[in-house]
Design a protein that fits this description.
With 471 residues, this protein is α/β, with parallel strands linked by helices. Helix content is 49%, strand content 14%. It contains 18 helices and 12 strands.
């Protein structure tokens, strides 16, 4: 018997079919839905960084486009790289702050990024706060070796080094035909280049900067502040370095306000010819070039102790790339990071840095200063301390505070002693030896105080959770 369906029956059948389809989609997993949708609308991999100059944006976009082109025809759907730039201090605040709440949309967008770019001094906190995914499995799969535990969480993408900047006109005016090479020469230059309203050196001891200015001066001596993950400030070269700065301060050649001065303010003093010399990084070359003609300044290795022999030593700071712990595309993120590492020379050239993985830098034809930096780097040794170290900011704050106090206190003590000896009509040589004794003792006490405080900060931490510990 042939069954005839009425219009109402047909509607009921259609309704039942719709219900079945809806139930089917409710029962399949959320991931299956996402995968199905990915094939239609594609997937977005978010790359969050702090490189805000136009050239960096252009190079990153081109590399992202090239990577996307390699994935055309991916059965999981098209992958689109989304580049987002944030201020460096925002990145630092987000990655160093524990949080159980997503907060506003900007914060949610950032913390759900697939890839983060950040400086080495916040690596420990980023790991401890759970913002980074472990790279251990990817590294093993690609047969890549790591020297430190920090590289299990992030890979070095670019590096920066610190050097001496000098005002060419300021140096040539009194007859100097080259920058100072050792401490005695530096003291001589700084004294001659200082006059009312102008100083031989501008210095930043602001812990909010990447590294206090004194760190690179310590490293050029060959001394290290850490050993096997513990403070090691007992090296005589460290107290000698602090005494060197105390002596400069006694001579009145350091621009005032070092403790509160930021890197930006320091560069402003240099570019406005208020200070003849300063310590800066590769990144700072571009900033100085925007304020001065490149023919007006030069860069050189940092002066070394008078009896030092050996290769120049540059302090190094690394910019890391890590995969976000909340990323739903971690495998794709690793593939993109691996691709970027192959092109790290192009990235480094765009952001005014060195490749972080040992690749050869791209020649800097447009800037003699950058070209000189690359030449100096090739013939030097490098040292990187406190990378991934717990509470690196706190350690820097202690160092800066104690050093600034030393400069003030030793100057006050020396002034009193100098007045006493002059009243007693002492010979100049005796006065000089007395002042030297004051600065030397002040430096030793400062180093001992920093050592104690650093030990106190680090003793509260579990060594097993220190990504700076060498395996």
């Amino acid at each position: 018997m042939k069954i005839q369906l009425t219009t109402i029956d047909k509607l009921l059948v259609a309704l039942i079919a719709v219900v079945v389809v809806v139930v089917f989609f409710i029962k399949i997993s959320k991931k299956t839905v996402q995968d199905a949708m990915a094939g239609v609308i594609g997937r977005q991999l978010v790359f969050s960084h702090s490189w805000q100059n136009e050239e960096a944006q252009t190079v990153l976009r081109k590399l992202a486009d090239d990577f996307e082109a390699q994935l055309n025809g991916d059965e999981n759907g098209k992958l689109t790289i989304v580049l987002r730039d944030y201020p460096a201090d925002y990145v630092e605040t987000m990655l160093t702050t524990p949080s159980t709440e997503d907060g506003d949309k900007k914060k949610r967008d950032f913390l759900t990024s697939d890839i983060f770019i950040f400086n080495s001094h916040i690596l420990y906190e980023a790991v401890q706060n759970g913002w980074l995914a472990s790279l251990a499995d990817y590294l093993r799969a690609d047969d890549l070796q790591t020297e430190t535990r920090e590289e299990e969480w992030a890979i070095p993408l670019t590096s920066d080094i610190y050097m001496l900047f000098y005002n060419i006109d300021a140096l040539t005016s009194p007859g100097f035909d080259r920058p100072p090479k050792n401490w005695d020469e530096f003291k001589k230059y700084a004294r001659i280049l200082s006059s009312p309203g102008k100083y031989g050196l501008t210095l930043s001891l602001n812990a909010d900067d990447d590294y206090p200015d004194v760190y690179p001066w310590l490293w050029v001596t060959g001394a290290l502040m850490m050993k096997d993950g513990s403070p090691n400030l007992g090296d005589a070269a460290i107290s000698n370095t602090l005494q060197f700065f105390a002596d400069l301060n006694q001579d009145g050649v350091i621009a005032p306000g070092s403790f509160h001065k930021t890197k930006r303010q320091k560069i402003k003093e240099f570019t406005e010819n208020k200070a003849a010399m300063m310590i800066g990084s590769i990144e700072d070359i571009e900033t100085v070039r925007q304020k001065m003609y490149e023919s007006s300044f030069g860069v050189s290795t940092i002066p070394v102790p008078d009896k030092f022999s050996g290769k120049p030593i540059f302090g190094l700071m690394t910019t890391f790339a890590g995969i976000g712990a909340r990323s739903a595309l971690q495998e794709e993120a690793w593939a993109f990071l691996s691709f970027l590492l192959e092109h790290s020379s192009d990235i480094a050239a765009a952001v005014r840095a060195l490749p972080g993985n040992g690749n050869t830098p791209v020649p800097a034809k447009e800037s003699p200063s950058l070209a000189k930096v690359y030449d100096m780097f090739e013939s030097s040794d490098t040292v990187e301390e406190l990378s991934g170290m717990p509470n690196a900011r706190s350690l820097a704050q202690i160092f800066c505070t104690e050093t600034a106090s030393m400069l003030d206190e030793s100057q006050s003590q020396a002034r009193i002693k100098r007045e006493e000896l002059r009243a007693a009509e002492s010979e100049p040589a005796i006065i000089t030896r007395s002042i030297d004794s004051i600065t030397a003792e002040s430096a030793r006490k400062t180093v001992a105080s920093i050592q104690r405080q650093w030990e106190g900060v680090l003793s509260k931490l579990d060594p097993q959770n220190n990504p700076n510990t060498v395996e």
